[in-house]
Design a protein that fits this description.
Layout (H helix, E strand, L loop, with lengths): L2 H10 L17 H6 L14 H4 L3 E2 L4 E3 L1 E6 L9 H6 L5 E4 L3 H8 L7 E4 L2 H9 L5 E5 H9 L6 E3 L16 E3 L2 E2 L4 H17 L1 H8 L13 H6 L2
Parallel strand pairs: 4-5, 4-6
Antiparallel strand pairs: 1-9, 2-8, 3-6, 3-7
């Protein structure tokens, strides 16, 4: 279930693919798993970054994403920005190890020594529910999906929330894409063309809106090559 699953079905279904095998892995095992040929397409909302572009080949982006921060219901610590957490050592913060969210928090002034870095989203949810941290950062899509889980109780999204504000004054946004092995050029091209067609005819908007995103979260104008080159 989810955005990536729907995109994969839209692209491969018309070509006769009726069954897709899934492989479970921790977030920081996605790229090594691709490299080791444990699977052929990444799932998990990988953001395009220059560092990752040196290891995998990203598709055309399918989503523009901000950081989604979860807190206890009622937001008792009144948390609304990374800057606020950075300036208050009493606030406890967590993220998934190796995630862009952890990198964004560090860039905003929360050093790794003040971050509880855990292997996956479920571990981070458990830390929040056990009161080991005051705020946990996820990609927005994952945060929204987690809140739909009936087992995730007592948490809510911190709103409003300001992530890492770059030197140019703009909040840093992520662009999610599917990842492939660099040698799998035909498979990547198939998805590049499929995502572009879905963006043009409105199917991509329908897919992301099913997951509580809006048309404002479409990656209009985003370019994988340029995102791979940005510092």
């Amino acid at each position: 279930m989810g955005i990536e699953a729907d995109i994969i079905r839209e692209v491969l279904g018309p070509r006769g693919v009726t069954e897709i095998e899934t492989v479970s892995t921790q977030f920081n095992g996605i790229i090594p798993g691709l490299q080791a040929r444990r699977f052929d397409i990444s799932n998990g909302g990988l953001y395009i970054t220059p560092q990752r572009c040196r290891l995998v080949a990203f598709s055309t982006p399918y989503l523009r994403v901000s950081d989604g921060v979860l807190v206890k219901t009622g937001n008792p610590k009144n948390i609304h920005s990374y800057k606020q957490i950075a300036e208050n050592p009493a606030l406890r913060f967590g993220a998934v190890r190796g995630s862009v969210n952890a990198q964004n928090a560090e860039a905003a002034g929360i050093p790794p020594a003040r971050q509880l870095l855990l292997p996956d989203a479920q571990s981070l949810i458990s830390a929040l529910q056990a009161d080991r941290i005051d705020a946990g950062s996820f990609s927005l899509g994952l945060a929204l999906a987690l809140l739909e889980d009936p087992n995730v109780r007592g948490l809510e999204r911190a709103m409003p929330f300001t992530g890492y504000v770059q030197p140019n004054g703009e909040e840093k946004l992520g662009f999610a894409a599917l990842a492939f092995r660099p040698a799998d050029t035909d498979l990547k091209r198939l998805f590049d063309e499929g995502i572009a067609a879905m963006l043009a005819d409105g199917r991509l908007a329908t897919i992301i809106e099913r997951q509580r995103f809006s048309a404002n979260d479409l990656p209009v104008g985003a370019n994988t090559e340029r995102l791979c080159q940005e510092a």
